Structure formats: C-alpha cells, structure tokens
Amino acid sequence: MTATEPADALYPIRTVSNLTGVHPVTLRAWERRYGLIKPHRTPKGHRLYTPADVALIREVIELLGTGISIAQAKQRVGQAAVRAPETGDTEGDAWRSYQARMARAIEAFDESGLEAAYAEALSLYPVDLVTNHLINPLLRQLGDRWQGRSGGIAEEHFFATYLRNKLGARLHHLAAQRPRHRMLAACLPGEHHELGLLLFCLAAANHGIGFVILGADTPLAEVAHAQRRAGCSAILLSGSGDPHPALLEELRGLVAGCEVPVLVGGRTAKMHASALEETGAVILGSDVAAALRRLPALIAGVHRH
Length: 305
Description:
The chain is an alpha/beta fold. The chain is 54% helix and 11% strand. The longest helix is centred in the middle third of the chain and has 24 residues, at 152-175.
C-alpha cells in the first residue's frame, strides 16, 4: 500500500494481515469483542478494509507495544501521542496475568493450561508482541531460576518442547501460503538453541515472509548450499554466544560468496555488532519489532553489502 493509492481502496483480510502482521484471527477478535475495526462486507460476508482501517490497526499495534491492554488501546485510539502506561498501573500491564498463568501451568506440567493461556494471548495480540512481552520474558524467567529450583531443568525442558512443537506446527501451516519472498533461516555453528530463531520466523511469516528453516548448529557452508538450491531472497542467522575468529572468517566468506543479504540476529548480533559488521553481514539485533520493520528493504537488497 502506498501514498498514491486511493482512499476508497479496499483490501481483503489476508492482505491486511500481511501489511500489519496481525493474524486474521486477531483482526476478527478485535472486531467482535472490542469493536475496534468495522470493515466493509461483500455480499458473501467477506471483510474488506480501507487504508484508514489499516492506519488504525497500525496505531493499535503501536499502543499495544507500550504494554497496555487491548481495552485501553481502544480508549486511546486517535489521541495525538502514544504514551506508555503510568508507573504502578497494574491494569496497563496486559501481560502479567498471562505470564503468571503460563508459569503455573509449566510448574504443574499442565500442557492444556499452557495452551489455553498462549492461545488466548495469540487470539488478541500480534505474534511479535506476544513474543516480546510474554514468551521471551517467560524464557528468561525459566532460565534464571532453574539452577536454584528443584525440577527447574525439567520445567525448562517441558516448556521448550511445547514451544518448539507449537511453533513448528504454526510455521508448517503458514508455509502453505507460498509467499513472494523466502529467507533461509539457521542458527550459527555451535548454537544449539533455536527457539529464538523460530519465534522470529513466526513473527516474520505473519508479515508475509516465508522461510526455509535449517535449525540449530548449522555449518555455514551448508547454509550457502541450501540458499542457492532453495532460491531464497536472504539468509538469516541467529546466535547467542561469542563468535570466535574462525567463525567470523567463515561468515566473511559466506557474505562474499552470496548474492543475497546475510542477516544476523539474536544476542550474538547485539553483543558483537562491530565484529559482525566487519564481515559484511547486516545486523538485525534482538528487537523483533525493529527487525521486522527493516526486513522488506533488506530483502529487496537496499542494504546489500
């Protein structure tokens, strides 16, 4: 959608989902439960959205990004400035109850309770906000407490297995949509934790970007081979450790030998941005929302090194 498009243009729900990153299920929930959006309807009942509707959805996303609830976002839509919730405003913390519910379910090894809380959050909020405000904090909480807690390792493994299966199923479903652009996604050599990569792929998939996912601990030579064979528009690498000199040289070779952008995200990119940039890689960092805003231009080759 561009500034030259007419104000009376109409977009189907799938197009709006790709433009905003908000899943159709969430768009319908915002309409039914909160009256946030009132799309046009075709004679057969299909929803059609105007450019003004898309702008409103983006304003709601910005409001939700401050941590407020969907009900509060409805009250604030149209105000001149987006502001964060006031300190001590417990109603404004829309994520605290979800975190508590999921933590209790993890402690009880209760997959149905875990699923109920996660599914409810996903039905009301864009997946990248759920990742930033719910899943990532929960993963950090589990990681921080496992050493001093009996059963903590089992809890962490239980949640990681649940999340890996959940993300895999959702990504498999989204793969059937045949997006215009696909990225090849892999963890850096030596990186055995792929949940961060999968969470990012899911968020990007809801923005209309497809993925070929290789997963954990992937040799960079294999990454280059897979990218060429799959015809992907870019390569996304993720890691959390400290890159050793040999890995940096391998990365430099990968960038030099590829005709597509090589992007690096995760803690490795955040902590070692300068060293990675010297290889010619593009740094995405660990902020999912900021990275998603940059992806379309990066895939188009605007920042190709």
